[in-house]
Design brief:
There is one protein chain. 69% of the residues lie in helices and 4% in strands. By secondary structure, the chain is mainly alpha-helical. It has one domain.
Length: 165
């Protein structure tokens, strides 16, 4: 059981990703789950704005699909890691969308800060869930960054390569 962020960092530091495995499918799946969470939100708001219950039926179907797909990313968890993971993905996606809107308004500095926060949440998701992967091995080297986001980001950056086919 992880009771604080220092234990989480220690746990993640004890792992090294086998460079022969392809986690890019997991990364793609996590982005798909992010979008399903957003679809759930839009269906909820549309149901309330239009007072049409058919959107709630669609919401339920999308929720079932999202839950099935999340089981592939998080096959085993303790405590509230499932819900934490869902909210980390959702928050990451939302901050990414707000950052994109700021970028469109030419607020590049604000957009960059939002993108950094989005990525920090995304790496925290992987930090919580990478150790569940059977192909994770003991790690010898330690990242230099002392913050939880820096350490997780360093580990996740090397673990996930979306361009690997």
């Amino acid at each position: 059981m992880i009771s604080n962020y220092k234990q989480l960092i220690a746990k993640v530091n004890d792992f090294k990703i086998d460079q022969n495995i392809d986690l890019s499918s997991g990364e793609d799946l996590s982005i798909g789950v992010m979008n399903l969470i957003s679809i759930e939100e839009h269906l909820f708001y549309t149901s309330q704005k239009t007072k049409n219950k058919k959107y709630l039926e669609m919401l339920n179907e999308v929720r079932i699909m999202r839950t099935e797909l999340m089981k592939e990313l998080i096959p085993d968890y303790e405590g509230e890691v499932w819900c934490i993971s869902k909210h980390l993905l959702s928050s990451s996606m939302r901050l990414m969308e707000v950052g994109t809107k700021e970028l469109k308004k030419d607020n590049k500095e604000k957009a960059w800060k939002l993108f950094e926060k989005s990525y920090q949440l995304y790496t925290l998701f992987w930090g919580l869930n990478l150790s569940k992967n059977e192909k994770v091995k003991a790690k010898e080297d330690k990242p230099n960054d002392k913050s939880i986001f820096g350490k997780l980001g360093s580990i996740v950056q090397h673990a996930i390569d979306c361009c690997r086919e």
